[in-house]
Amino acid sequence: MSRLADYFVVVGYDHEKERSGVSCGKIIQRFPEKDWKTCPFPQGIELFCQPTGWTLSTQRQPPSFFVSVLTDIDANRHYCACLTFYETVAISPTKPDDEDTDEQDSALVHHSLMFAPKSLLLVSRLSYFEAFKNCLGIMYTVYVENLQVQLESLVGNILGCVHVPPAGGPQVRFSIGAGDRQALQPPLNPTLPVTNVCVAQIFDELGINNVMTVLFAALTDHKILFTSQSYSRLTDACGAFIALQYPFKYSYVYIPILPVSLLEVLNTPTPFIAGIHSSLRNDAMDLVGPLDVIIVDLDGGSLHIPECVSIPVVNNITLFRTKKSLVEILKPDLLSADNAFPQSPQKQPSFAQKDKEIRSVFIRMFAELFNTYRSCLTIIRIHPEPFITFHKANFLGHRGMVDDDFVVRALDGMGFNAFVAERGPPYRVCDIFDEVYATIPDQLHEEKSNPSKMREHIKELAQQLTLNEHPNPQPYIPKVPKPTEGSYARIHQPPFPILNWNLIQEIIDEGTAKNSIKNKLVNVRPYQSRIVPNGKPISATGDRQSMVENNARRLEVLRNCVNFIFENKISDARIIFPAVLRALKSRVTRLALTQELSFHVHSNRAMLENQQFDLVVKLLNCALQNDSSLDESGVAAAILPLATAFCRKLCTGVIQFAYTCVQEHIVWQNHQFWEQSFYQDVQKQIRHLYLPQYEEHLMIEKAPDKSQSPLPTSNGNSHNRNSSATLESKRSSESSLHSREISALEIAAEQLRVWASVPKEQQQEMVLNEESTVYSQAIHYANRMVYMLVPLDVNRSHKNLAGFDGESNSNSNITTSIAESDSFDAESGFDETEHSDVGSNVIRFVTRFVDKVCNEGGVTQDHIKSLHQMIPGVVSMHIETLEAVSKESKRLPPIQKPKILNPTLLPGEEIVMEGLRIYLLPDGREEGTGGIVGGPNLLPAEGAVFLTTYRILFKGTPCDPLACEHIVIRSFPVSTLTREKKISVQYIPHIDQWVQEGLQLRSNVFQLMKIAFDEEVGSENVETFRKLANKVRNPPDVFSTYAFIGHMVQQATPLHKHKEKNASLRHFAKKTLLKTARKAGIKSKPSTHKQKYVLPTPPMLRKNISPRSSDSESERPSSEIFDDLSMIDENEFASSLSSDPKNLERLMERSSYQDLERLGLGTLSTPGQKSHSEPFRISTVNKSYSVCRSYPALLVVPQTVTDESIRKFARCHRQYRFPVICWRHPRTKGLLLRASGFHSRSLMGMLRHNPSTGTSSGEASSSIEQEKYFMLLVAATPSSSRSHNSASYSDSLTSLNSLMMVGGSDSLNIPETPDLHLRPSYKANSSSRGNGNRKNKPASLNRIGSLRGKNRMSSTSMDSQSQANGSLDYRGDLINSSVKGLHKVALYVLGEKTQMKGIKVESFPKCDFIPVDFFEVRHVKASFKKLMRACVPSTTTSSQTESTLYKAIEESEWLQQVQNVLQLAGATVDLLDVQGSSVMICLEDGWDVTTQVVSVAEILLDAHYRTIEGFKALVEKEWLSFGHRFTHRSNQTAANQASGFAPIFLQFLDIVHQIHHQFPLSFEFNQYFLKFLAYHYVSNRFRTFMMDSEVERVEAGLLLEGKHLLNIDDGDDELGFQLRYNHNSSLYSSVWDYIDKHHRRSPLFYNFLYSPDETVLRPYSNISNLKIWDYYLGEDLANGPSYDIEVANRELRQNEDQESEAMEISRRKILSGCYDNIMLQEPNFFEKQFMEMHQLEIDLGHLPQKWKVMWDKLESPVRDTVHRQVSFNTQLVRSHGRTIHKRSTLEILVKGKLLGEAARAFSQPHRFEKQAYTTPVYCDYCTQLLWGLSKTGMHCVDCGYNCHEKCQPFVPKSCTKLKTVADTSASSSNISQTGVSNTSSTSVATSQIYENFPANVGETRTHEGYLYKQGALLKGWKQRWFVLDSMKHQMRYYDAVEDSNCRGFIDLAEVESVQPVKGFPGTSKKSEDNSIFEIRTVRRQYNFMATSPAAAQEWIDKLQSCIQ
Questions:
Q1: How far, in Å, CA of 200 to CA of 60, rounded?
Q2: How many angstroms from the chain centroid is the CA of residue 1586?
Q3: Cis check: omega of the bond before 271, within 30 degrees of 0
Q4: Local confidence band at 202 (pLDDT 50, 70, 90 cut-offs)
Q5: I want to staple 937 with a disulfide (CB 3.0 to 4.6 A). Which of 380, 930, 1318, 1814 is the partner?
Q6: Three-state DSSP class for 1489?
């Protein structure tokens, strides 16, 4: 028996340490004063009496009682019962302010009388809380009521006289001497927790889901913090969760009530369960932060789980069953709630009964989860003490819980380790859980057929729990005196007296002496130990049934293959070998493989031939590859004896075992695997040690032992296995015997039962035998580990050797000697590891294993020491043995593999890295795989990958034997490589080897290579290939690309490079001499080399003058070729260029400038020579590229504009790209101009050129010159002075889709008379608001400048919404009605919305500024990535159909972007051709979207550009001369890689393809011409598309050099190149020369349907009319891409030669769409005729004529002679086509005009007034409800805007002032076509247009989530909700996700860089390395921390996509 209480303590307020009413507690008295020997007094107990702190109170509080839990150093819990009351104390007045100024913050008001707390404590090791409360209550009653009872006797009786029997003892009734009667009832079982009603109470407070979440968090080692205002609730809640974890015990920090002074404990890195008062929650949050602590609010019944915390749950089946049971217990009415005739109410169960039923549910849940756990217990020692471990991998594998996160984490916790240690022994005292564990499988099976049984089983178990707590059925009514009500508030209450310790000590001593006598008399029968039931064995979980049902065919194939191998039928084995490899993915098949191989080992067939050995090794490797490092299936353990048995003889005395070929798997470096395998074998040996003692099992075990235990060598008993029937019979007999075997646990239980009766001598012998068994197995495993860990070739480091000294998965206490060393890395300088290094690593690894298992297994220290001495010798001997094996194995003949085919290279193309043998794997495309598409199975293919200076090339043959005669080629230019990543290779059909590494290479020419490296390719070669590919892909400058190096042209030597300054000594000396000469005043000799000049750059152009470029690039990279201008005078190039007239003449000879003369846009003139007869002139103002560096040298401007004026108004545009005339309509004389976006007024003031001049003067002069320039452009437009009706509408006659529309005239019907005050009127409530708008807006009026967030809502939803708001349905005739508000002008400026803000329209007469929608470059980048993934997917989806392809392309929005450019170009065409006005395109920086629109418009307007020569002129003029940034957009150099690939030019070619598809008769070139350009503009083969502007090409000497035209008939016809040419020539460096050469030789690029016509084209731009370009989807595996014509022709000839040699007679050709190039192998009729004519002329000996000459001799049909009768339907179609074009143009104009009006209207502030809403109204800002008499809101009296009062400061100033608009527009024409009367339409306002604008949060939030933001350096991290808004170009943050008020934002226009940060100081311990990133702006730097590295990388990617 034990004491009820160990100590009584009186703790009071320490007045000596008081300061401002706050002090600490002090122990006044404690009894006994000396510590008990078995129970020392706990220190710091006074802190737990007042957990929130010792403070005085102004009011007397009622007494309180709670129990705290303290844990000592030995993990024993002490329960501290505390009763606190308050005593009166006198307080002196507060100190003057001048004495203690630091106490001015004290909020305590001092009175003359205060109340100090005092606590009475009972400290006990027993948890009888009710008895503690009664005893302390009696003492307080005696004190406060002044009863005639000595307090000393009460204390003495409690401490000395009240003793409690142990668990299972009788009830104890006692009295402490105050007339009381009390009883104590010990529980029946000591291991079962006593809960009373606390479990039911916690479910009532938190609910089912919350309780289960917290329980799962506790079981998976999370930190849990409870908060409540009640201390008792904290203790009960924590105790309830401890009880719910039964049978597990919580082993971490457990503090139900944590004092405020110990809050630092919450910073512990270990898990804990703690509780604090609710008033301390904020302090705790500030201390620990919300990183990884789960906070449970008991009062509010809520949980707070941080985002970074992931709480696993049990599997769905168990979870569903548990929740269902809990619902039936806690909510029984729920089951009958739907009954039509409910039954009479039944008596509800008591709280105590619910408590026990709930606990029963969880006991059953744990028994179900860990069912069969005893089958996975491994016993290592039985005597003298049992040592048992748990085979975790075996349990997870057999139960199928490898991926069950909850079970895996629960098994790794300390609680499960304690569970195994406590419940593992097979002979012990059992409790309820053991019984439930044994019966739960049968109960679940019964409940499956009869669900009502579950409730009965739960009640039966609950009854046992109730009986455990209340074993005595007789009720006992206690008697406990209590104080009168309100007695604590008595005024004259004396303080608690000082007790006489002598008297108390006497009573304690007397009671202790009496108790010792009682202990002798009372005999409590202890619980008897018994054999623990093992339950259902783990082998009976259905594995055998699944093996028979699902794997019968697989096992049959496996058995046949193994038989073929050992019967030396290698060819038969190889046929079914791929099927066996595929079957080995199954765990059952892998185990069956080990069994099959073990039979052959015992049949003395372990010595194999070479081919047999190779196949067996491949099977073993494949089985290990499909297994994990934990070896859940036991495959690796079963392979261990096989790997040491199978061998082959290399030569006399040298034998190679299989373990030398299976060492690459990570399982061999896993300590946990070796330990579990060792323990399993030790258990087998222990079992065999005691098995002979059980006679009934002896005969059964003899037969299977010989076959069940595989021997490590081949010297076992020989068994002949002649047929499979013998094997089956043997297996059947074995299975029947296994069912009767006795397990090791059963033997251990019997041994433990009889241990006490065994003589000591026999006991000692048993201990020695077991120790010897463990020792012998340790020797055996030490040898095995040496075999598996020492590599075959010890001269090179084992790739996993570094893991020996790294982290161990074992629970070993032995620390590693070297922590994660990098000494074995190839780049660390230790490529050749010496033998001693390999041996020492293996020795350390094996020694660590031996120390752990031997210490746990009880091996003597002498034996351990001998093992330490043995291991080095074994390692050294094995290394010596392997040297001979390695030497002889290299002499084996290699396996016959296909010959590596040599690739066909271009002239000048060199191989950078020789071919690496690889397998080309199939990707997501079905072509070539022989699937539903059909055709041969070409992939996977075996061959080699080559890296050249130009391409990444694969060439090989298919692995399929039926298609191996084909040659597979896949290649792409290395410059087009966009992404390279490592991939994990799974099973590959037709490949019979284990492939280790793989790469995925994606190209922007829509090509993908998934390659798997052959086993002969080492990791070093793979890494070298990756590095070389990256080096060739990212050259330092353009001169290092193939365009300059591949043609053997001397690299242009720049004066100053980025990184390679002074690359050579000669160059350095030359620079030094030049500098010295300049300092001395000596002029340098003028150079004749043009490339030596460096062009001057305007000072303002050294930085990007645009505040934000179109693609959000804050700064354009400096010139990729030249940067440093320190050596060259800025006027030097200008003088040299203008001094030589031939330079300008050479420029004028280029096709881009000759096209200007063709258009009649003036002639070349100088400032001194002006010809006023011509309206335009070619200005040389930019001849030195000083005005605009990205513009050409010669520009077309009006005749009267001066060069000085150009220099001034050029400042008004971004990048100084002022408006330039680029085309003129031959009939209407309308001008097409291009420029960049306008600068705003304020920005122009900051960007003035001359700092000496004032801001106003410089800005004003630029604006005046700009206005004059626009007036000159208007004057140069003839249509500005005449009516537009004279212009005829010209239709196209070449469109196949427009049904040959003829004639007709129509116009845009825009009135000529302008009306500046005309406004369309609509009625609506203003709904323009921030990101809280809940209303949707139509896509037709979306944000100008970006189409990213287009709304796709249906018309039905739009109509219903607008009608619900009381608005008009005006959309049907919006365009037609709005035409009345438009007026015709001479010049239309299409620009961005932001440009319209700073432009005064009245300053530009006859000009109209139209904001238009367009996709920015960042959208094009994102869309192209999705397009590539859609057209060339990396993996095959389950439903890879055409619909999936179309859906993916639709989601990429690529066709929407094509449509957008076509619509803008169509509007430009209509304005120029029909309206007769001039059009200026001013979008972004003028070099991307502007170039697209202008180029497409010119192609539609001018038939010349549809010819090959014209298209060349167009590209050179609009794309090359006007500075499209090819190098930057195509990422041609290393400096441009970060910007990302932007296919602007490819998108233009796609648009031309769409036009070509609709008008196939209007283009001279064919589709192949466009594909050729699309391929080679990024291939870096030609110099045409290199560099970013004309100035860079002039600097490189590419434009001013004379033309080197060659005779196109010279050279090799086959190659297409002249083999002998000048070293310095630029042979075919231009793509146009190359095209011209081939165009003259063959009609490769010619469109035979071409019929010249001057018609203006108007293509359809609907998505339904757009086609997916086959360039994106095409594949040519026979010859590779056909765009390298020489390579394709040579490959085609080689294939034809091989076929002709193989087949002497001609045969029919079979062409496959995915393999053959139809264009090359089967040309069209015309090409075939020309080829035959050419061959006939050669055969006849005639001089071959050019094909073009012969083609021109043919008479072409006249298209104008076609006449037919036009039917009514045809007229409708014709009218429909015209309407589409006109409507599209009018839409653009109307949208721009309406947005322009709205921009001016939305600049008014609101006039808010308070208003009480009586009907439900929503806030227009935050979308929350505004309703109720007590809730007043703000209402705008002008526009009707409603919002909360708190939202008013954040409302945008966008009032539309409906009254004003309605008054001014009353006389204007309104839209009344929707059926609304004129009276109602007078109050309609333009705000109706903006009602449906997309301001929904979801539509504008590109990315959002929680981030931790650091306020400043070295300050704390705070969690905020961040929103990335790509529309507003902001990164906003809020306090929480629910917060609607933005706390701040980061303007992305100011962001300079976004990059990850490693090793950041001041971060949390839980933060991961790569989870922090920084955002650097022009003002400051921000640091953010994400929840994981993946989340951080996602934020970085999203931010970079927005700023690029």
A1: 34
A2: 35
A3: no
A4: very high
A5: 930
A6: helix
Digit-coded pLDDT (tens) for 1848-1890: 877 776 665 543 333 333 333 332 333 333 333 333 333 333 3
Q: Tokens 């100590």 label which residue?
A: 7
Token pair 């018309």 in the structure block, residue: 1355
Instruction: Specify whether the CB–CB gap between 272 and 265 falls below 8 A.
Output: yes
Answer whether 1292's CB lies under 8 Å from 1655's CB. yes
Place of tokens 């059963």: 746
The C-alpha atoms of residue 1454 and residue 1428 are separated, in whole angstroms, by 10
The whole-angstrom separation of Cα 1789 and Cα 1794 is: 9
The tokens describing 537, both together, are: 């064995």
Question: 1855: burial class by Cβ within 10 Å (0-12, 13-18, 19+)?
Answer: buried
Q: Are 68 and 254 in contact (CB under 8 A)?
A: no
Spell out the residues 6+ positions from residue 1739 whose beta carbon is closer than 8 angstroms to its own.
Answer: none
**pLDDT grade, residue 1382 (50/70/90)?**
low
Residues 6+ apart with CB under 8 A from 731: none
pLDDT at residue 1385 is higher than 50: yes
Q: Find tokens 């309180």 and name the residue.
A: 64
CA distance 1093 to 1130: 10
Nearest to 1341 by CA among 1888, 779, 1907, 716: 1888
CB 942 within 8 A of CB 957: yes
pLDDT digits (tens, 9 = 90+) for 1442-1474: 568 888 899 999 999 999 999 999 999 999 988
* Contact status, residue 20 vs residue 108, Cβ threshold 8 Å: yes
Q: What are phi and psi of 981, to 5 degrees?
A: -145, 155
pLDDT at 1224 over 90: yes
One-letter amino acid identity for 1756? S
Structural tokens at position 1068 = 């350095």
509-540 pLDDT tens trace: 888 888 765 555 455 566 788 888 888 777 65
State the helix-helix crossing angle for 587-602 and 610-625, rounded to 10 degrees.
150
Beta bridge partners of residue 428, listed in sequence order: 530
Residue pair 1167/1242 in contact (Cβ under 8 Å)? The answer is: no
Helices (H), 1140-1213: 1141-1148, 1151-1158, 1203-1209
Position 619: which residue type? L
Helix (H, G, I), strand (E, B) or coil at 1176: strand
* CB proximity list for 178: less than 8 A, separation 6 or greater: 138, 141, 142, 147, 149, 154, 481
- Asked if residue 32 has a cis previous peptide bond (ω within 30° of 0), the answer is yes
Reading the block at residue 682, the tokens are: 């030790």
Report which of 665, 652, 1805 is spatially closest to residue 1326, judged by C-alpha positions. 1805
Which residues are registered as beta bridge partners of 1409? 1389
Q: Which of 890, 1906, 964, 1788 is nearest to 1414 (CA)?
A: 1788
The strands making up 272-277's β-sheet, listed across from edge to edge, are: 253-255, 272-277, 223-228, 293-297, 302-304
Which whole number is the average pLDDT over 1269-1290? 64
Instruction: Judge whether residue 1342 has pLDDT over 50.
Output: no
Cα→Cα distances 312→188, 212, 225, 410, 481, Å: 35, 11, 18, 10, 50
Q: What digits encode the pLDDT tens for the residues 1040-1063?
A: 888 888 754 333 333 333 334 444
Strands 1387-1391 and 1407-1411: parallel
Contact yes or no for 1437/924 (Cβ under 8 A): yes
Over residues 1290-1297, the mean pLDDT reads 36
- The answer to whether 829 and 701 are in contact (CB under 8 A) is no
pLDDT, mean over the chain: 76
